[in-house]
Every structure is written in structure tokens, then in C-alpha cells.
Protein 1
Amino acid sequence: MMNSKRMILKAAGAFALVATHPLAHAGALEIAGSTTVQKAVIEKVASRAQAAGMPLKMMGVGTGKGMVMLFEGRVSVAAVSDELVNAIASARKAGATQVPDGLQMHEITTSGVVPVVHPSNGVAALTHDQITGILTGKITRWSEVGGADAPISVVVPAEGSGTRGYIGKKILNGAAFTASAKVMRTSAAELNALRRDPNAFAVLGAGVARTAGTGVKPIDGPKFTRPLALVTIGGPNPEVAELLKFLRSDDVQGLLAAN
């Protein structure tokens, strides 16, 4: 009987610990924005967050659309994969007409972007100039960079994507993408295009490329790094503050270090 009482007390104590967690009975925290943050951060930590009483719902709509949803009050936090000024520019391209005051960016980690090709492509590495040449249409055949004599099919993210904004500013230095580029709305669509087309080329977030499996091949190139972050209007509310504390913990940062 005494053992049964102890078990009941233990169970009651465990319930009390869960119930007193600040987010234990809250609905899932909705985050909208970067698909790179979705793949490289949120999907990696979702089960741990759930176990810690912080269920998360990630809407991978791209940096710009996520910022628009934040501005419109549809979410309390947006996920971005670039500096704040560039995330705001992506929001404008995604349709934002007004930008609220007091935006705060909360960096979680950093991530690279990498050139990616079809697994059958024999090219092993590209220089910065070669990547720029391909993306702008100055280089149009794989034979110009040591590959097969075949046309290059350039795949790029849609306007409003944080990755597209980062590539445009940091890799292309403001130059335009080739007019023949195939524009994809999501990173999943980019991956599918790369898997289908032996001549395809894209620059993807490292986290997206690494979770793609064997259907695509990242190749060597220069190191480009950008922040992965959450954005709030003013300071984070208690729910978001708790999430930031969780994401910045040593255990989670160790998990994210491969980005």
C-alpha cells in the first residue's frame, strides 16, 4: 500500500513539474519564414522542444513572407536567414507596404550556402567567379568549368527568399540572375528540380543541402556564411523568450553546430 502511495505521489509530482512549465498548456508556437531555418534549426530541435513543453509549428513560407506575416500580426515571430536589413528588403519584395518600428533580430546560429548539382555531375568544385558566372548567365555550359559538354540549367529561389537575397548581395554583388533561371517557390521545389535534371545547378542553404539525402550533390566552393535568426516586433513575448533561451542552450547549440 505504501509503495502504491509513493507511486501516486511521484506521478503527481511529475505532473506538477510539467504543469508549472510556462509553456506546458500553451498551443504550438507558430513560426513563419525561412525554409533554411526550418530545416537547419526547427526540424532538428522539434522533438526536444516538444519534450520540454514547447510544441512548435513551423510554416516554411520563406523569409519575406514570414516577415509579412509578422508585420500583419498573424504570427508573433518570424524566421529569417539573412541580416535584418536584408530580411526587411525580402519582406518588401513579398508584398509588405509598411514596416513596423522596433523590429528585433535574435540570432540563433549561423549557416553556410553551398553550390549543389545532380549526383551524376562530374564537377567537384567551383570558384566564386565561376559560381557568379553561372548564376548570371555568363557561363552557360558545364564544359566551361571542367564538366560535360551540356547546358547548365540554373535553379534559383523566388523573390522574397532570404537565401535569394543573400546570394544576390553577397555572391553576385547586386548583379542580376540569368533571365533563363528556373524560379522555385520553396527549397523543396529546388531540390526536386536538381534531382530531376542532370544539368541543374543551384546554391542552397547548407542545412537544406545536408538533409536532402543522396538525390543531390553539394560541391566544394568558397565559404559563405549568414545568420539564422528569429525576428520579433519589440522584445520577445514570454513564449518566444523561453524558446530563445532553449535554442541558445549549450545542448541545442551543440546540435546546431553542423550548420
Note: The domain at 112-225 is CATH 3.40.190.10 (D-Maltodextrin-Binding Protein; domain 2).
Protein 2
Amino acid sequence: MQQVERIGTVAKAGSRTGRRGIVDRILILAGSVRLGIVLLVLLGLFCTVGMLIMQQNVEGFGEYYAGLSSRQKLVLGSLGFFNIYNSWYFNALLCAISLNIVIATIERLPKAFRYYSRPAVAVPVRWLREQENARTIELEEGLEDVSTKIAAAFRTSGFEAPLRRERSGNVYHFFERGRWNRLAFASVHVALLTIFLGGFLTAQLGSNGSLALYPGQTTNLMFDTAFDLEQIRRITKQLPFEIACYDIEQQLIRRDGPLTPDNTIDWITRFTINDEMGVHEAEVRVNKPFDHRGYRFFQAGIVTVGRARSIRLAVTNEATNATEEVTILRNRTTKLSDGTRLIFSEFRGDFSPGAADTDEDTTSFPNPAAIVHIEKPGGGMATAIVLGSAMADAPELVRPYGGYTFRMLDFERVADQHILAVQRDPGSPIVYLGFGLLTLTLCGVFGFSHRRIWAAVIKTPDGATELVLAGNANRDQDGLTKEIEKLEFAVNNEMREANK
């Protein structure tokens, strides 16, 4: 019975050992460099797909999607390539890379900490002789005399006082610098995990949308698109503050040219943000986004309907025949000298009787015209259509409105609306922190090295005394060799001074 029990115990122990072996192999694989490289390559491929295939939260995705064939829509949509950064497999890949980094860090940290807890002062002499930059100096002095001179040579060479150990009759002098470099890999891993964390927070908690603004508009809504395999849905999202636009401007290269990008210096949108903290002035330019409470506003496009930011008119009073010039901003009013109010109501880039065609691109202003309301001091309203083209000189078109005749002298061209891209990116500060840390740690990893130098005074079997100088570094072997040569020169000087 006892023998059977022992066999059973051995069998159980063996099974536990087998299970531990499987777990160890899985952990070794999960933290291996090869797996990490494969996962990073996959991550790069997915990011490339995201750059080559327009994502659904990018302005203009609707037109891009409409231009694809039915088969392309089905295949790319089924694979999630239109929203790849929020797909389950992309997030799973980030988790796998993060797990690989964590396991690799845990595996390597104990080995790195040994450089702190147990510095390798007394090492086998044979190992020292095998180093690439090892050199041997035969001496006539005894161990203690040589040890004193070596300590002085270290100080003369610019090194700190070396550690001293005795082992097996030999005396070891040991110096090292840059020991922290052995732990730099952990900082690199932390930086990568920080970047991944920031990207994950942006993917899960971020918000994107677009906002079309025109002067006089107040809103707290933005719009986004959601993709299904067969259709695109428009999603309305509420902002935690209210936006009131009061001015949009387009600085043109040629003032009388079209509102095209090649004729534009800058798009400018001015608005106020009203929240519980008060009213905040905001201005968005092409290369100058605006940030507020984690939301960033970018210039994304225009609505291609030609409008005027301001008009300059020559107004003639029919009763007095007096003419005065006035400038009226969009959606604003001005007063004439007799108290009559002029209200800039509307502007059309291609005027025709009836309702305007909002789908027509009128940003080249083929037939501009302004609609101005006239409000008399004593009451009464009239509406004037002021043409700004050559048609304004036609006698049959020149007629008084409410006792005034109008002529458009100039107008400042602008689009009907500016479209702003709105992005809430809660992970961006974390990502920036991660990249900053990664840059610093990579500079530390590759710009410095951990160098260890030994000077071992040994007794040979024939009773002679030898000095073995050797060093070891994790990188920059040339720099280590120069330090060994410098130390060797200092040792020889010390010996010569002692023999005088």
C-alpha cells in the first residue's frame, strides 16, 4: 500500500510539473520579442489600412462611400475597415501588445535589478581574459602595492573610487557607470503603454463631428456619421456648451476672384462659447485651431454658396438728390443721415427672381446682388434689390426703392457657411506624454551605455603578479576601449613613478 501511495504521489507531482511547464512556455511565448515584433507589424498594417481607406468620421466620407462599388462596400464594411480604429480586432491587438510588453518587462526586471543588488565585482579571471578589450600587464610589485597604485590610476583617469574585493587570493578593483541604462527598457515599455492607453481612451471616449456656422447662428449641436453595411446614418450630438457665431471671413489672394482654395489665404470663423464658466471668445483659422474643455475646432470646409461679409453702397435720396456711402456687415444694420435704417438681409452670388437654389455653386459670383430692407423713421418698409454686376448700369433696372436709389460699389466675398470639424480627444495629452517619454528614453538607451571595468591583480601559478584590465558594455564598445586604454596608460604611469 505504501509503495502504491508513493507512486500516486509521484504521478501527481509529475502532472503538476507538467502543468507548470505548459504555463511557463505560454508565458515565455507571450512575452517573447518575436511575438512582440509580429504584433507590432500587424498594428502597422492595420494603421496603414486606416490611412489608405477613408474612415467614416472624416469629412467627405459620404462622397467617398458613394463612389465605391457594391462589392467594395460589402467587403470593406464587413471587415470593419471604414472604422478600423474602433474595431474589436484593433483593440484586441492593442491589448495583446500591451500584455506582451508587461510580461516582457516582468521577466527582464529581476535580471536588470541584479546589477544593483549584486554588482559583479569578483568575476572569473578566465571570463575577463575572454573580453574583446582585455589586456594583461606583468608586474613586479606585490598585491597590496599594486592595488594601491591601481586605485590611484582610477582616480587619475577620471573614474570614481573603485570597489575592492578579494577572492581566491586575487584582488579585484571594479568601476561602473551608466548602470541605470540597464533599466531604460522598462521606461521604453512604460512609454509605449502610455501611448496605447491614450489611443484607447480616445477610441472609447472620444467624440467627433462637424459644425456648419454662419453669422447670427446659435447652436449646441454637432453632427457625425455612422456607417452600416448598406447606409450611412447622420447622428446628432450635443455639446456641453452653446456656440454663437458672429462673423466668418475668407481672405482672398484676388479680391474679385472665386472662393476656391487656390485663391484663398485663410478661412476665419469667429464665435463665442457660452457655458457655466462664462462667455469665451473663439477664433478658428486654417492653421490655428481652437481648444475648449477638451474639444478642438478645425477648419474643414465651406458651403459653396456665395455670400458677402459686407457690402458698400452708394445711396441717393430722391427728394434731396444727396448721395452718401455706407458699409453694412452681414445681418447688420446701418443708419442714413436722415435716420432711415438699412438692413442687410440677404446676398446672392448668382441672382435670379424667385427662391435661391441652395445646391448651386455660386462661389464665383456670376451675378451678385444684395437684398436690403429700408425702414423709414416715421414707419413703412421697402425692399431693394441692389445689383453688383454690369446689369446695374442698365437704365431699365435703375429705379428707386422707398425714395432711394442704390448702387453697389463693392462687396467682400465670403461663403455662406464655414464647416468646422470638432474633435474631443481625451487621450491626446496622454499620447503626447507617452511620445515625450519615449523620445527621452530612446535617447537615453542609445545615447548612453552601461560600462563596467575590472582591474584584477592575480597571482600566477609560477608566483608572478599580473594585472588584467578588461571591460564590458551593453553598447558603444569603442568608447569602452578608449576608457580601458586610458586606464592602462594611467596604471603604467603609476608604476613608472613608483620605480623611480
Note: The radius of gyration is 39 Å.
